[in-house]
Design brief:
Blueprint (H helix, E strand, L loop, with lengths): L3 H4 L5 H7 L6 E2 L11 H12 L12 H11 L11 E4 L2 H12 L5 E6 L5 H7 L3 E6 L10 H7 L4 E7 L11 H14 L2 E5 L21 E6 H4 L8 E4 L2 H15 L4 H12 L4 H22 L3 E2 L8 E2 L2 E2 L5 H10 L2 E2 L1 E2 L11 E4 L4 H20 L1
Parallel strand pairs: 1-12, 3-4, 3-5, 5-6, 6-7
Antiparallel strand pairs: 2-8, 7-8, 9-11, 10-14, 13-14
The structure holds 4'-deoxy-4'-aminopyridoxal-5'-phosphate.
4'-deoxy-4'-aminopyridoxal-5'-phosphate (PMP) binds next to α5.
Length: 377
């Protein structure tokens, strides 16, 4: 009964772990800030709902919000205006819209390995063929250009990039971003750049793909930026002719994004109470804590994540990531097996540090106890 393209995709490994967890488990599995949205944003949402903003709005989003988003991109490309922006019903929807809007059936799409769980299934749902490219730990989770040159074919349509990365926390240096642009230009590829973690950077400097080439589509989200994962709001930035085309797909998926959520986000972008900065400072402290603690546990090795809020330690315990994650789950700790993000995630666990320091300490204690029992065999 179900279409072939749907039979080819599965529910992500992250969700499976979450849904199988015992009550009161320490959840370092899901990637969402444990903060509330900033108070001015919550207030603006309530006000919008009370003041009648409860109906459909323009498909591409409220003009004022599109304008406010465009202003964030002007320093990357001074030509950026509201016509480049489409407000979506989350980064996830933005990624799906990009896939449906850019990939033809039979096209090949280069997707990161390890990489976020939606890129390959979205390519499949659009009838395209995901082709994983390696981000090896030994290369600090950056691409191997010789391999990319081997993987690219006349059927390759797009390159998906994600810096800072989920799950590795790696940040592409400017030189890597520029080389990727050159690679895309040379092979006539469109770049889908998932920049949802752009504000969460601890080491080095974030380099956006926007403003470097007309062949870039940026996918972004307010989920992490404003700690409002449940509100479902994101955006796409693309050249204006492309934005018109992507908006057509977006219209057919959801007609328009949530009107009151857009009013709230607009308030959040225009009146910063400092809540976002405080959240980032807390993430920075947790990142120090988790990296230090993980590297003290025998059998674990963790490269400090430069951005996002994930640690991606390598383990040298027996068993696959799923087996280790299942055993940790039985001890009350939710993690995500690295292989959920592709073959190069094998031997890794992903731990989100968007959880309180107390929860992180409890999680580290479970890992320490597990490491002792693994050593005993
Ligand atoms: N891209 C990446 C890399 C993510 O980690 C996430 C959320 N986990 C998303 C996109 C989608 O975020 P949302 O749908 O909440 O906007």
């Amino acid at each position: 009964m179900v279409a072939q393209r749907v039979r080819e995709v599965e529910i992500s490994g992250i969700r499976k772990m979450f849904e199988a967890a015992p009550p009161n488990a320490i959840n370092l599995g899901l990637g969402e800030p444990d903060f509330d949205p900033p108070p001015e944003v919550v207030e603006a949402l309530c006000e919008a709902v009370r003041n009648g903003m409860n109906h459909y709005g323009p498909s591409a989003g409220l003009p004022a919000l599109r304008e406010a988003v465009a202003r964030r991109y002007v320093d990357r490309d001074p030509r950026t205006g509201r016509e480049n922006v489409v407000i979506t019903g989350s980064g996830s929807e933005g990624l799906m819209v990009a896939a449906l809007g850019l990939y033809d059936p039979g096209d090949e799409v280069l997707v990161p390995n390890p990489g976020f769980v939606l890129y390959a299934p979205h390519a499949r749902l659009a009838g395209a063929i995901p082709v994983p490219y390696s981000l090896p730990e030994t290369w600090h989770f950056t691409p191997n250009f010789a391999e990319l040159e081997e993987l690219v074919s006349p059927r390759t349509r797009a390159l998906v990039v994600n810096s800072p990365s989920n799950p590795t926390g790696a940040l592409f240096p400017r030189a890597v971003v520029e080389k990727l642009i050159d690679f895309a230009e040379a092979h006539d590829l469109v770049i889908v750049s998932d920049e949802v973690y752009e504000e969460m950077v601890y080491d080095g400097e974030f380099t956006s793909f926007w403003g470097r080439s007309d062949r870039v589509v940026v996918v972004n989200s307010f989920s992490k930026m404003l700690a409002m994962t449940g509100w479902r709001l994101g955006f796409l930035v693309a050249s204006s002719p492309l934005a018109v085309e992507l908006n057509k797909v977006h219209y057919h998926v959801m007609a328009c994004p949530s009107t009151p959520a857009q009013a709230a986000v607009l308030a959040g972008l225009s009146h910063d109470s400092g809540a976002r900065r405080r959240m980032l400072e807390e993430f920075r402290a947790r990142r120090e804590l988790i990296t230090r603690e993980l590297n003290r546990i025998p059998g674990l090795r963790c490269v400090p994540p430069a951005g996002a809020f994930y640690a991606f330690p390598h383990f040298s315990w027996p068993g696959s990531g799923s087996e280790v994650a299942q055993k940790l789950l039985a001890r009350g700790l939710i993690t995500t097996p690295g292989e959920a993000f592709g073959s190069l995630g094998t031997g890794h666990l992903r731990l989100s540090f968007a959880a309180s320091r107390e929860k992180l300490r409890q999680g580290m204690a479970i890992l320490r106890a597990y490491s002792r029992s693994a050593a005993r065999g």
